[in-house]
Amino acid sequence: MAYSDKVIDHYENPRNVGSLDKDDVEVGTGIVGAPACGDVMKLQIRVEDGVITDARFKTYGCGSAIASSSLVTEWVKGMRVDQALEINNGQIAEELSLPPVKIHCSVLAEDAIKAAIRDWQAKQAQLEAQAQGTAAAEAHSS
Amino acid sequence: MDANNHFAVLGLEPAYELDVGALERSYLALQQQHHPDHATGGSVGERRAAMELSGAINEAYRVLRDPVRRAEYLCRLGGIDIDVSDPERGAPPMPQAFLIDMIERRDALADTRRRGPAAIDALRDRVEREQDEAFDRAVVALRRGAVREAAVALVERRYLQRLVDELDHEA
Predict the structure, then answer these.
(1) Is A37 a catalytic residue?
(2) By CB atoms within 10 Å of each CB, which of A22, A46, B105, B166 scores lowest?
(3) Nearest of A54, A77, A70, A52 to residue A108 by alpha carbon
(4) DSSP letters of B46-88?
(5) B75 interfacial to chain A (CB closer than 8 Å)
(6) What are the extents of the domains in chain A?
(7) CB < 8 Å to A58, chain B
């Protein structure tokens, strides 16, 4: 299959390959898989004051899956979380000129960034609940 | 004959358990009977029909003689096409823990490689055993008519297959 120049560029020089500490409260981790082909993708973001300051990925799959996740990490850096949630697979597929049989790779990358944001949001909600619990306990004891 | 159903094409019952001898005999007989060469004197329509039927017979045989393809095909007949990445009619999504395990095991491949070919071989043996176990679960589920459960096991087998492929390719 003929890959577009952009896919080949991301495949040969992937941006932001690597990992962030998944236990860090500022880090959100999304792990998704494509059942039909067995590709797996991990995408992580670091969020400070509502802005994504770092993004990393590891993708074990075809060139289009690697390029899709590489592109998304490039895009989201500097975005606010709510902006990153707006990214959809159509934009990714268009940027990389993915053929129809590879559209599912861009869907995977969209799912991965959404899963990473959800993970970060869940961590923030938990922190908030803990803070409230502590405040309530302090109010009770005083 | 329903040309869209591989079992019907070869005159077999749609089940995982299959008499391989009967499959071979049926295939060879039908292939001879419907060979496109027999239609060379016919009209364009007849020749095309003969080509299509002959193609359907070959495709049915290719899918049904292979146990994994046969099991996957039974899932498709049951409404789950695991070649499709659409959660509505395609493969069910795998549990998060399974996907995390798949990522971590791929991450660990570089270390395994550093330990040498014996370590790679040992890992390949283990993953292939897991593949067999997943496949056995799929067959058991298909016998009970539990298509979704079978599809999950077959998808698990595919992810493991990809892991084996990576062991063999990225030296």
Answers:
(1) yes
(2) A22
(3) A70
(4) HHHHHHHHHHHHHHHHHHHTSHHHHHHHHHHHTT-BTT---TT
(5) no
(6) 5-131
(7) 103, 106-107
Q: A76 in contact with B at a CB cutoff of 8 Å? A: no
Read off φ and ψ for residue B18, nearest 5 degrees.
-150, 140
In A86-105, which positions are buried (b, 16+ CB within 10 angstroms) versus exposed (e)? ebebeebbebbebeeebbbb
Give catalytic status of residue A105 as yes or no. Answer: yes
Residue of A nearest to B80 (CA): A36
Judged by phi (left if over 0) then psi (alpha if -120 to 50, else beta), residue B98 lies in alpha
The closest CB to that of B91, out of A36, A39, A60, belongs to A36
Domains of chain B: 6-65 (1.10.287.110), 83-169 (1.20.1280)
- The CATH number given to A5-131 is 3.90.1010.10
Q: Are residues B99 and A32, on separate chains, in Cβ contact within 8 Å?
A: yes
Residue from A20, A40, A57 to probe the interface with B (highest B Cβ count within 10 Å) = A40
pLDDT in tens, chain A (142 residues): 578 898 999 988 888 999 999 999 999 999 999 888 889 999 999 999 999 999 999 999 888 999 999 999 999 999 999 999 999 999 999 999 999 989 999 999 999 999 999 999 999 999 989 888 888 888 777 6
